[in-house]
Amino acid sequence: MGKERNARWYDEVYASASSLYAADAVATPWYGIWLMAVFWLNGLRPQRIVDFGCGVGHLAQMISVGPNLRDVDYLGIDFSHVALTKARERAPESTFRCVDLSRHPVVDETREPGGLCVVSCEFLEHVEDDLRILAALVPGVSFFGSVPKRDDPGHVRWFANEQLVRDRYEPLFTNFELFPVGRRHFVFIGCRA
Question: Which of 113, 147, 117, 115 is nearest to 130 (CA)?
């Protein structure tokens, strides 16, 4: 198992031209997760989306071209300046902010639950304080998250089975649902309790 990494480490990963993060969304192992997120968001029709750990903006780009989500207020949050620079290039109509959620788990945009969806695709496994970050969400916020089924140098945890995901995250949510996605990921959705 890896350890929690700092922004500089992620800056180097994202700056690598050979990185999967430089590829189009469809060429990445996370494309199926992002498609599920867009489908879920389309069904909810939120007014605002906050994306924890937005990385280089693949999901922001997919949201910006989605027919029902173009006019939604999107905020992508990451602590890597390199990732955010690439995200702004990939989705220039979206808003991005550099925030270390481990140090500042609440951002102003998540204080009012009305019309808000928080998305966190492949972020929670990278931070020790994942539960504190999620617990800081106000009750009523709709949430979409994904976590890996495999280890990686940047992961502080991974999930070998569905029960491990349930044990860790289900107590924080009502209407919790969990879906395996291929051999690599779990997706879960719920409403912050």
Answer: 147
pLDDT tens, position by position, 18-60: 677 878 888 888 999 999 999 999 999 999 999 999 999 999 9
SS3 for 148? strand
- Residue 167, number of CB atoms within 10 A of its CB: 11
Residue 94, exposed/middle/buried by CB under 10 A (0-12, 13-18, 19+)?
Answer: buried
Which structural domains are found in the chain, ordered by start?
7-192 (3.40.50.150)
Please, what sign has the CA dihedral across residues 27, 149, 81, 66?
positive
Phi–psi pair at 171, nearest 5 degrees:
-60, -20
